[in-house]
């Protein structure tokens, strides 16, 4: 399972704006937090994150929203609601899995905020555990600079290499999935951006 989120700051007072999960078959969950409408966002977030939101960009929108799309290819759930309702919808969405290996990219803040949705890491819904795997650490172990833009880890002809918009949780989770799948399939990344030696 591949996870990403957008949030208000790199501080202890950070609050969740949106989150996304994508499984290995492309089944997706995307949510934006209605509480975020009351937050004061810094100029960087207003310029680089907020424009890529589905509902938070609409200042007058106060209605909750949930859409479940079912098809033979995949299932997706999109939701704009309060954090407790998002947690309930996500618990339902996760209930179809017997086991989950969670991956995120530099998840120090993302994972804490995710766990807070459920009252902390010891209260995560089954089958989640408190363990999250860090993609940036995987890059370091592969001798690749973890600051490398993720699109550069994929072949130029990859659909994810130049599609979508960074700083959107769903796109970033899908990009993480594409990078991880490429590494799993080929045993390497495309990037030659190696870690600097001391």
TrEMBL record:
<dbReference type="InterPro" id="IPR036397">
    <property type="entry name" value="RNaseH_sf"/>
</dbReference>
<dbReference type="InterPro" id="IPR033390">
    <property type="entry name" value="Rv2179c-like"/>
</dbReference>
<dbReference type="InterPro" id="IPR012337">
    <property type="entry name" value="RNaseH-like_sf"/>
</dbReference>
<feature type="domain" description="3'-5' exoribonuclease Rv2179c-like">
    <location>
        <begin position="2"/>
        <end position="179"/>
    </location>
</feature>
<protein>
    <recommendedName>
        <fullName>3'-5' exoribonuclease Rv2179c-like domain-containing protein</fullName>
    </recommendedName>
</protein>
<dbReference type="GO" id="GO:0003676">
    <property type="term" value="F:nucleic acid binding"/>
</dbReference>
<dbReference type="Pfam" id="PF16473">
    <property type="entry name" value="Rv2179c-like"/>
</dbReference>
